[in-house]
Every structure is written in C-alpha cells, then in structure tokens.
Amino acid sequence: MKRDHVFEFFRRLAEANPSPETELEYGNTYQLLVAVTLSAQSTDVGVNKATRALFAKVKTPAQMVELGEEGLKEHIKTIGLFNSKAKNVIALSQILVDRHGGEVPADRDALVELPGVGRKTANVVMNCAFGAETFAVDTHIFRVGNRTGLAKGKTPLAVEIQLERKVPQPFRVGAHHWLILHGRYICKARTPECWRCPVVDLCAYKPKVLDKAAKSPAKVGAKKAAA
Fold this sequence. Notes:
Layout lengths: L2 H14 L12 H10 L5 H14 L3 H16 L5 H19 L7 H4 L7 H12 L8 H10 L7 H11 L8 H11 L31 H10 L1
C-alpha cells in the first residue's frame, strides 16, 4: 500500500471513530493489565463478564494477592485457560508488590518479564495506559494487515514492524484500536463485509465481497465470472 493510501486509510477510520478505545472494561492501569492478560484466547465480552464482579473487589495487586489463586479462579472460571491465567495473575501481582511498589511499570521490557505477559499484552498496556505508539498485533490486526496490504508479514512481529514503519502521524496512538475494531466488525475472518467498508477502494484484497447477501468471496467471484 502506497504512503498516501496509508494516510487516507487511517484518515477514514479516524473520521468514522475519532476516539477509539479498547472494549475491555477496567478502572485503573493494574486492572487493564489483568484484563488484557485474561483476554488471551478469549473474547473481550467474556472477559468483561468475568471481571465486573472481580474488579469491584480487587483494585490493586496487593488485593489480588490477598484474594488468592483459588478466589480468583471462582471469578474467572468462565474464561478459557482460567487455571493457568489465575496462577499468572497472582504471580505477576506479587511481583508488582515486591519489585514495583504495587504500580504497573511504564516500560515494555519490565512488563514482558511478568508471568503471562507477552509482547502483545505489554503493547496494549503501553498504548492504552501510557499513550505509547505501540502496535499490539492480535489475530484481527494480523488479518487486516495482510489482507489489505497495509502491513504484510508471516508472523505477528513482522506485521508489527511493518506498522511501526508505515503508520504516520497523527494516527500512531490510535492505529492499534482502529485496526482491531475494523477486523472485529467489518474485515471479518470468514466473510469480510466489503460492501460497508470505508477503505474498500484502498484494499488489495481480491475478490471483494460487495454483495451483502453473498456467503463467501468465492460466491462473489463466481457471480462476476458468470456475468
């Protein structure tokens, strides 16, 4: 995708949603870290349902440690991999208490040293909590980057590097959110809803699904071939 097209791509997404935010619910930076850690291989909707009661009780790492692993499991047992996630959340909370004064560090290297926190989770926290220009490549951003031609790569890190290089100001802080929301609600995995996509003319994906009634891109291509 050409540089002027990249700018226009994000300009349109920004025009449609000027103030994008994560759909995870949280009240402070620590709760954000916990929510993002719990969201691995789970939906934001499912995490939010589990954390509403939890976050009403637990607002600090010390309170989480006091709740304990078994107590945490009772709150998050509806989330996938809840056993290992509970273990990690308690462990990272203890480290925050012991090494960081109960505060979440505004440093990606320090964040990825926490149990259960990988590069993607750290990038989300850095972006949402501290306004860093980071690009957390999840399955949606990976798909959108490759499908549209915006940022092609065989791995999430490769796509992240491309985004780091290509995304212009003033869109760098919000880019992560715009791409996730675009992938979640329009550029869907099974059938991208190209008929209502604001950047359809900038996208390299072929064949495009321009018929709302179509079940797959192949069906649209077949219709065009038969015409």
